[in-house]
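Order emerges. As here.
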Amino acid sequence: MKKSALTVLFVLAATPTAFAADVVTIQRHMGFNEDAEVPKAVLEECKLDGEMPRAVAESALNTGTTVNFAEKVDGTEPGRVLWMEIADVMSDGNGFIGHRKSITVKGKLYEDGKVVGSFKDRRSSMGGAFGGFKGSCSVLVRTANAIGEDIARWLAAPKMDEKLGDLE
């Protein structure tokens, strides 16, 4: 009997389960900081406000975190809530002269209304391989995906005032 009980205990301990800490709610569409100077074409065409949360959610799955979407979050909701905003977007250049793109995102992680972590993340891109054949939005979405990976890793072990991506 003891051996069976130990075996069951070991199996339960080794089986991954979804705890509250493995679930985070984020807004479906991020806001832009009121001081952000984002080119009008980027706002209208690239849809970064939706691409960024999507990138975080997809990357979070790789770290064992499940993302729930809400239309809006402010940190007062129960559970773990990630509030984020796009603080800056630079979209210079093009496929002919070369891309110079970057996105900066700031965020705070709340747990039951209390701030338990915060970050600032910036990623830059010149378009990567075959960048000359990519449009501006394509390069910015590539940058958003990199930021999504950064934030997903941070969510696994959040800290206060963390610098991510190119800011590390």
In short: DSSP finds four helices and seven strands in the chain. The chain has one domain: 20-165. Strands lie at 23-27, 31-32, 66-70, 80-94, 98-111, 114-125, 162-165.
